[in-house]
Records
---
Amino acid sequence: MMAKREFVQQAYAAASRSSERSGMPAMVTVAQAALESNWGKSRLSQEAHNYFGIKAHGSHERIRMSTHECEAGKTVAVKAEFAKYGSLADCIECRDAILLRGAVYAGARESRGDEAGFIREMAKRWATDPRYAEKLQAMLVEVKGILENI
C-alpha cells in the first residue's frame, strides 16, 4: 500500500503529463484520484488501475464490482462494470479524454482555469453523490498541503 505522499507524487507526475495535452487542472486530477480510490487503496484501483470509477463501455476491458450510487436521495449498492487500465497514467489520460469529449462536461472545459469552478461543473455529471463537489474541494486542499511538503 502506498502512503498518501507517495500516491500524490506518482499521481501528480502522471496528471501533469496528461494536463499538458488536455489542459485539465492537474491538481484537481490528483485530488479526484485520491478521493475516488481512497489514495490508491480501493480494490478497483488495485485490481484495475481505475482511480476514477470509470465505467466500461464498448469493447473496453472490464471488471465487475459492487459500488454505491445515490438514487432519489438514497444510497444503494449496485453491480457495475468498470474499465480496466494498464497503469495510473493510462487511467488519467482516459479520464481527461472523457472530460474533453463529453458534451455534458462542456461547462467543466470552460472552467479549466478556475479549480473551484471546474470541480463544481464536473461534479454535476461525474458522480451521483450530491456532496461530490464539496468532498473533492476538501480533498484538493489536502493534496495541495501534501504537495507543498514534498
---
Amino acid sequence: MFVWIFLVFGAILPVGIVAAVLGYNFQIALYGLETNEPLSLIGILLIILFLLKSIVAFGLWTEKKWAVNLGIIDAISGIVICIFIMLIYPFIDNTPGFSVNVRLELILIIPYLIKLNKINTDWQSLTLLIR
C-alpha cells in the first residue's frame, strides 16, 4: 500500500516543483520537517526525500535489482532524520519553549528496514536468476 502512496506522491512531485517555481506556496512535511515554502532549504530537502521514496517505490513495484539497496538507504535516512528531529532539533530550533516530539514514523520505518534487510539476499539472487 505504501508503494502506491509514494508512487502517487512521485507523480504529483513535478506539478509541485513547477508550482513552487511559479511562486505558489504549499505545505510539505515528512519526518517532522515541515515548511510552507517549497523552495526553502527544508522544502528542497523534503522534495528530494519524496523523490527518493517515489523512486524506491517504483523500483520495489517493478522488482528492480537496485530497489532493496536504495530502500535500505531510504529507511536509514528516515531513521536518522527522525532521531535528529526528536533529539537535536529542539535544541537548535528558535521557537520559545522546549518540546520533544516522538516520531511515530519510526514504528513503520524500523520494521521496513528489518524486512528489507531480510529480503535483500533473496532479492539479489532472484534478480540474477531472472537475467
---
Amino acid sequence: MKSNTYRPPYKQPKPIFIRPELLLHPNIPKPLHGLNPRTILGTEWWDEKRQEAYKKNNYCCWACGVHKLNAKYHSWLEAHEYYDYEYEKGEAKLIEIVALCHSCHNFIHSGRMNMLLDSGEMSIVMYLDIKHHGEFILEKAGLLVDYYNQTPPQKVAEWKAWHIVIGGKKYYTKFSGIEEWYLHYNG
C-alpha cells in the first residue's frame, strides 16, 4: 500500500568546519610505527573516540569537507591520530582523533601510500588522484606552498627515546632500532 505522506528529499549534512591544514600533518616517525592508541587503549576506547570524531563534523571529512556518502573510494570516514611532534625529544603527543575521507587520510600517510604503490597494491592512477586531491585542497586554502616548503627537523632524538604520550602517559617504541623495524615490515 502506498503512503500519501509527503517526504522531502534527504539532504546530506554540511560540514560544521573544514581544516585543510590537517593535510600538512607529518608522517609518523619509523620508531613509532605499530604504536598507536588503538593497540594501547583498546578497541572500545578507539571505537568511542572515532565515532565522536565522525559525528563532530556531521560525518564530513575534517580536511576537505566531503560527506562520507560522497567520498571517493569508500563511503565512510577513517579516523586519524593527530600528534604534536617534538623531534629533539622523540615525542609525539596525541592531540585529538580526527575524521578523514580515504583520499585525505592516504595523502597524509604519503609514506605508506608510496609503499603501496611500489608493492603494486595501489595503482598509479589512484596514487596520482589522491596526490592531486590533497594538493588541490591545500592550494584552495593557500597552504600548498607550506606543503612544498616543509623541511625535515634539524635535530632528531635517538631511536630508543621515541615515545607517544596519551593522556599524560608515555609509551615507548616497540623496536630496538632500524634493523628490527626493517625485519618486522620486510620479513
---
Amino acid sequence: MPQYKHFPLPDTAEGLTDAEILAWHVQPGDEVKVNQIIVEIETAKAAVELPCPWAGVVTELHVSPGQTVDVGTPIITIDVDPTGAAAPDPPSPAPTRSEQNADDDSPGTLVGYGPRTASAKRRPRKGAAVPAGRSAEFAQQAVQTAAERAPDATPMPAGEPEIAAAPRPAATAQQTAPPTAEPASNGAGVYVPLAKPPVRKLAKELGVDLRAIEGSGPSGVITRDDVHRAATGPAAEPAAAASYDAASREHRVAIRGVRKATAAAMVGSAFTAPHVTEFLTVDVTPMMELRARLKESPGFRGVKITPLAFAAKAVCLAVRRTPDVNARWDEAAGEIVYKDYVHLGIAAATPRGLVVPKVRDADAMSLRELASALEELAATARDGKTAPGDMVGGTITITNVGVFGVDTGTPIINPGESAILALGAIRDMPWVVNGQIVPRKVCQLALSFDHRVIDGQQGSQFLADVGALLADPAVAITY
C-alpha cells in the first residue's frame, strides 16, 4: 500500500516564524531522492533551498509559489512506497502542526529540520491551507457564511480555494501544471473578489458590489481607484487629461522577505541607538602600492586583493586598541557586552535587497585569508545563497559604498552592534606631500557609532587608527 508522508515547513533559523514559497523544483508525479532539492523559500533573512528528507514520488503540493506559510505547515506530500497496491488510496489530509510534532517519522534527522518545541499563537495568514475532509453540509454552511461576510473577508490569493469541500484524490503525473491567476472561489463555485481589507471596507461604505468590478491591480486585484470609479460611474474628463493615467505607469511590490526585515531593523536601530558619525579623509597611496606588489606575489596568486580586504584587516587590528567599538548595549540586562572576537559583517547589495553576512573570527585571519573569505562571501550573497545562520551574531560592520563611486555616507548601525564603517571610493586627488601638491590616491572614511557605548574620544581613536593603517600599512607591525 502507498505510504504518504507530509513534509512541514522547517524552522531554518532562530526566531523565524514563516517563509514565502519562491519556486518548486518538483511537481506531482515526480520521483525524488533523499536530500534532493525540492523547493526554494525566502525567509526574513535569506533565500534557502530545502532538500527532501525521503525518497519516493510527489503526490501533492499544498502551497503555491508566492504564498507565505507558517513554520510547521505541511507544504508537500511524498509517497515513500510508490510500488504498493495498483489502486492506491488517496493521501490522508495533511496533519496539523501538533500532529506533525507527534509523528515519529517526521524529518527531524536533517540539520535545521524538525518541529519546534512551542508553537506561536498567530492569527491565520492569507491563503493558509485548510484541512480537507470536511462534510458536504459543513462546507456548504461555510460557503454561505463566507458569502454573507464577503466585504470584510480577507482576500485569497488567485487560484487558491478558500475552503476545501472534500478530500482530493491522489495526484498523478498529469497534475504538473502550475496554478494560473484566475478569480478566486471558495471551493463551491462562489466567486470571491480579490481585494485588500481596506478596499473591501471602502466598497462597503460606498455601497459597491466588488463582484461586479474588474480589478486593475496585479493578478486582477481590485484597487481603491477601481472602487471609486464604480461608485461614481463613468464621468467625462477634460480632453487634456483623457490620455493620462498615472496608475498605468506605476507598479507595486509587496514589502516582504529581506526588504521587510531590513526596514524593520534599520528603523529600530535609528530610533534606539543615538548615532554619531565622524569622517576622515585618508591618503591611501601606500596601501594601493602594497596591493599592486601583493598581486604579483606568489603567496597571493589566485586571490583577489581588494581595498575592502585592507579595510577589514585594519578594522580587526584597530579593535584591539578600542574594544568598545566591538561591544554591544544590552538594555534588558543593563550591561555592556564586550566581545573577545570579531565577527565582521560586510554589507552586500543583492537582487533581493541589502544583506549583511558575517566573516566569523575575522580577527584571527591573515590578510590573504580575509581576502579569500570576502570573495567567497560576496559571490554567495550575489547568488542569494547566504545561509540564515551566516547573517546573525555580528560584532561590527563595514559597508563598501566606494564600489558605487560614492565618496562617503552616514551608515546606520546594525542592531546588536555598536559601530559601522563606511569605505568610500578611492580617487586621484591633489594632496600636499612635503610641502608640494602632488596627485595621490585618496579615500574618505565614515564611522557611525552608538554613543551609549562609545564616547567621542573612543570613536575618534578607532577611526584614526583605521586611517593610519590604510595610509601606512607598515604601522600594522606596531599593533
